[in-house]
Design brief:
This is HIT family protein. InterPro entries: HIT-like_sf. It comes from Methylopila musalis. A five-stranded antiparallel beta sheet has the order 1-2-3-5-4. The protein has a two-stranded antiparallel sheet with strand order 6-7. With 145 residues, it is α+β, with helices and mostly antiparallel strands. Strand 1 and strand 2 form a beta hairpin. 33% of the residues are buried. It contains three helices and seven strands, in the order αβββαββββα. The protein has one domain: 2-Layer Sandwich (HIT family, subunit A).
Length: 145
């Protein structure tokens, strides 16, 4: 059963991969090309409240996620933001950062916050076509576990 944060970020339409403990979804608003949300599926509103199994699974997710995003976006840096001010479920905003603009599916992606903190309110909102294309591309680049 998806939690409120997963649903807010478009689950299941935005889903790229999920495990017993985590959901990896395309972030519909893209402050950096390839932005994702990584949402814990356990009922927890504090990072330290996650189970040891969720922490172990997080390492496996990140080990696949970063190389896939690097191949797709050629990011210069990657940021993981755990803000949880509006959405209480444990989750990260995964933001590939890029100094120069990127293009994908007919959209331009400029990292408006570069070189400072990500500008989460900036960037294009993906339409259904761009969202499906980005999901498919990341899934193709992310090897099966």
């Amino acid at each position: 059963m998806p939690n409120a944060t997963m649903t807010k970020f478009g689950y299941p339409e935005t889903l790229i991969r999920e495990t017993d403990h985590w959901s990896v979804q395309v972030r519909p608003k893209q402050p950096g090309f390839g932005a994702l949300v990584l949402v814990a599926k356990e009922e927890a509103s504090a990072f330290g409240a996650l189970s040891p199994e969720a922490f172990a699974d997080l390492g496996r997710i990140v080990a696949g996620l970063e190389p896939a995003l690097k191949r797709l976006t050629a990011y210069d840096k990657i940021n993981y933001l755990m803000l949880m001010m509006v959405d209480p479920d444990v989750h990260f905003h995964v933001i590939p950062r890029h100094e120069t603009p990127r293009a994908f599916a007919g959209l331009a992606f400029t990292d408006a916050g570069w070189p400072g903190p990500p500008a989460l309110a900036d960037g294009p909102v993906l339409d259904a076509h761009a969202l499906a294309a980005l999901k498919a591309e990341i899934a193709t680049l992310w090897p099966a576990a």
